[in-house]
Design a protein that fits this description.
Strand content: over 45%
Distance between the termini: 95 Å
Order of helices and strands: EEEEEEEEEEEEEEEEEEEE
CATH class of the largest domain: Mainly Beta
Shape: elongated
CATH topology of the largest domain: Immunoglobulin-like
Helix content: under 10%
Number of strands: 20
Number of domains: 3
């Protein structure tokens, strides 16, 4: 006897959970599928969260509804300055500011910003309580100008600074420019073809702006 098909509606909390039936990928929730009548084992996977296994009986005479639930919270992440990359273990969650679902529990998240010290923080995620995590970096802002403009900015290691910092594009940073740096002594060299190089130095304080300006003399 041929098996009849049963209408199955599959939802989850959070959405976009991947559902498998007999090792076959059905898709991401919310889903609307037709399965043969009878008993089925369905598996739900979401990121690195615990896998959910459910056995259901598909009845062809009614709409069969199935919901996968995890204990989780929508957590908002921000950073000062904004733009920090946030990691949970080796997984990059996003670039601040952003929000994402995290499973309930205690975990350590890391915030990374080029040229600034990495920040680690232990957070507790409670289901249903919308949390907010702000990473405050210890930094200052350097504003570099030259006359004439367009000079290449050389760091203390003798290498040109790059647009976007260490993790940025492979393009030299030219004056005028603004640079985020951890507080402390600052020493930079400005170079431009046809002009003598100039070294400028000072001390950068936390949460302050340091303005550095130099005039380049022709060779």
């Amino acid at each position: 006897m041929d098996l009849r098909l049963a209408e199955v509606s599959i939802t989850s909390n959070p959405d976009k959970v991947t559902v498998f039936w007999n090792d076959q990928r059905l898709g991401e929730t919310p889903l609307h599928k037709w399965l043969p009548q009878g008993s089925h084992k369905l598996e739900a996977r979401y990121k690195n969260w615990p896998v959910k296994l459910v056995e259901m009986s598909a009845d062809p005479d009614k709409l069969n509804e199935l919901a996968f639930e995890w204990g989780y919270d929508i957590v908002s992440f921000d950073s000062a300055p904004q733009g920090a990359r946030i990691f949970l273990g080796s997984e990059e969650l996003g670039v601040a500011p952003f929000s994402c679902p995290l499973k309930a529990g205690v975990m350590t998240v890391r915030a990374f910003m080029p040229d600034l010290d990495e920040i680690q923080r232990e957070i507790t995620v409670t289901p249903g309580f919308k949390g907010r995590v702000v990473f405050q970096f210890d930094y200052g802002l350097i504003e570099v100008e030259s006359e004439p403009p367009g000079a290449t900015i050389i760091g203390p290691d003798g290498s040109p600074l790059k647009v976007g910092g260490d993790a940025g594009m492979n393009q030299n940073l030219l004056t005028p420019a603004q640079i985020l740096r951890r507080p402390g002594p600052v020493q930079l060299r400005l170079e431009k073809k046809g002009y003598q190089s100039v070294t400028i130095s000072d001390s950068l304080r936390a949460q302050r702006m340091l303005k550095l300006k130099a005039t380049l003399e022709r060779e």
